[in-house]
Specification:
With 444 residues, this protein is an alpha/beta fold. It has helices at 15-20, 53-69, 79-86, 89-102, 115-142, 198-201, 204-224, 235-240, 242-249, 263-274, 284-295, 328-342, 361-376, 388-399, 436-440; strands spanning 22-27, 32-38, 42-47, 111-112, 157-163, 166-173, 176-184, 190-191, 228-231, 298-302, 311-316, 319-322, 349-353, 380-385, 408-415, 423-428. It has an eleven-stranded mixed β-sheet with strand order 7-6-5-1-2-16-15-3-14-13-9, sandwiched between helices. The protein has a three-stranded antiparallel β-sheet with strand order 10-11-12. A two-stranded antiparallel ribbon has the order 4-8. A hairpin with an 8-residue loop joins β10 and β11.
Amino acid sequence: MSNDSGISSVSGSNSGRFIRDFQIEMKDFGPISGGQLRLKPLTVFVGENNTGKSYSALLLHSIFEAIRSMNFLEKYLSMTYRKNIFMESEFSHLTDDLWELVEGKTDREGMNIPDELLNKIINIIIGNIFESSLVDFLVRHFAVPLKDLRRVGKRSFNIRILWKFINFNVKYKKESLSIEDLEIDNIDIKINPFNLNSENRRDKEFFCKYVFGLILEALFKSLGQMPSYYLPSSRSGILQNCRVISASMLKYDTEESFPRFPGIIRDFLGSLLSMTDENKGVFYDLAREMEEEMTRGSVVLKPMDMFLSPEIRYHFENIDIPIYRASSSVCELSPLILYLKYVVKPGSILILEEPEAHLHPHTQKILAKYIVKLVQQGVLVLITTHSEHLLQHVSEMTAAEDLSPEDLGLFLFHEDPRMKGGYRISEGDPSEGRGVIEIMNLFQ
């Protein structure tokens, strides 16, 4: 792909393609002794309690957030911002080599950055900037020190990330996390100094920062543009008490002084409190269809005064009911409905923990239908589940060709017979029902 920034890189036509290129391998992370995850447009984690499903989902969310933080498509337009990152010592020694490529160049043809120089720059980007970002998100989202993410009795954990043309190990050992064994496959980044005006083209510092930004864009543009949203299993309780929690938080001077919440809880609470009916999203009509079929009413935002966030209510037969008085099924579905109305858009990653909670088997069947509709419209969905009904309905929709088997990833979390107290991840094959039947046998 070429654009007028002078970059050439690998590109795909949709978010589903990008996510298929993403894999992780885990060893001794949380309760997981080992396993591999290959994401699909719809990815399903199945297993007994305490086998590592939520650990894995939250790890993926942390990685996605760290990658998204590397997306400089907007930030790198600010030269001041880039200067703080790219002109530090670890980058500055590469600027002379980069400048030699273009200094005195008069023809207007672009050129590829030599592999050796490109690899050095990418090593610094992954090994310094991404590493620091991932540490921040892991600690924030899990709300524990990194050492507590090791499997019990182990001194280290390892996560291998494989995506597009880069793969590397994220290894925790000796009380610190580091990036190791970075491998870079074929990647061509074409730069053209004549895409800059004459003044900036002759400015060594400006030009080098510009190229470093383009390399970041090539590495992280596709996945970095996919926001990840995590709806935790405790979502209905948070929803019912969000105003009480937010009022309590105002009593504390700083975020650090408030009793510690995992980052996903803070993010979820923040999303609920910032929703307004003026900001309807792409999936608003789909959400309205879903709530009418599943709740026989609607989840509404009732405006309060200008200093308070809207109150969430359930509207049924011309009556507004405070959400804490609604049925458990309505409370459970309301966060998903609200996210679809106001937050999620095509290209988003939506992670749902146990979406079947408090739902009748027939309602679970309807839920499966709408999950598949979201996938069909470009949302990448990951669910953790204990429900044979939900899994069966997804299987039926695959058989009916509403969802291609290639778009469905099934992963079984099960006891590792070789590792006491450890659990492994095995992938099922959804084609022709294989894998689905295998996982369904868990419920027999």
